[in-house]
Amino acid sequence: MPDLFDVSQEVVLVTGASQGLGRQFARVLSAHGAAVVLAARQTAKLQSLEQEIRGRGGRAAAVEMDVTDTASISKAIDSAEAALGPISVLINNAGIAVEKLAVDQTEADFDAVINANLKGAYFVTTEVARRMIAQRRQGNIVNVASVLGLGVMKSVSPYAISKAGLLQATKAMALELAANNIRVNALAPGYIDTDINHEFWSTPAGERLAKRIPQRRVGAESDLDGAILLLASNASRYMTGSVVTIDGGFLLT
Question: On the CB side of 47, how many CA atoms lie within 13 Å of its CA?
């Protein structure tokens, strides 16, 4: 039987690939045979990941991309396609958070989060989709949202707003692009232990938060491997506009 989760023929663009979940997604997809385009603003980190993947026999290309700058998006995708060929799978993973109560968030804070997490993903999607349509190729877009697009916590209101918007963008794009054989789905992770927040989970506040998760633990980056392979591969061929939640049951509380 053919492998439903085969991605060996795919050219996958991962935004925010320099660290955390983006880096993990790139590693996993590469390990399963995909050619991966690593996009982020921090190119030094990208180059070490590119060398790591190539050292294991994988195909990878690092490109500098600022998702808040549409000219940067277009230039980066030109470079990506010159290196590895047309993009067949896009993983919109780039994003930031500013932790302050709403009354302390500045206009600059709000704009930075919305521009990176929502506007950026929207315009990377439209740029990639236009190329897929012009080339008459089927395509696949995965938006990395969050459980905070479905529920809320204190001190990250712009982030929660941006991720809720990204879930709605996923559905709107899925509806519009289905006729072009382009699927759009979202991944909604819960609390995941990454480089950025690793120290937090050993603090009293981190331990209290972990205990609120029904599975009684924080997720590991590898807990998302199965879901990203599902959404990036033909295994999800009849899914579009869907949201896959991976949170240890967090939203149940």
Answer: 4
Q: Provide the β-strand partners of residue 193.
A: 220
Pair type for strands 192-193 and 11-15: unpaired
Domains by residue range for the chain, with CATH: 11-252 (3.40.50.720)
Q: Are 147 and 188 in contact (CB under 8 A)?
A: yes
Q: Residue 131: in which H helix or E strand, if any?
A: helix 120-134
CA–CA separation, 13 and 33 (whole Å): 14
The residue from 122, 159, 191, 238 that is catalytic is 159
Alpha-carbon distances of 92 from 12, 72, 143, 217, 251, rounded to whole Å? 11, 15, 5, 26, 22
Asked if 92 and 162 count as a contact pair (C-beta separation under 8 A), the reply is no
Collapsing DSSP to helix, strand or coil, 189 comes out as: strand
The model's pTM is: 0.97
Cα 19 from Cα 165, distance rounded (Å): 23
Render pLDDT for 149-194 as a digit per residue (tens, 0 to 9). Answer: 999 999 999 999 999 999 999 999 999 999 999 999 999 999 999 9
End-to-end Cα separation, the chain, in angstroms: 40
159 is annotated as an active-site residue:
yes
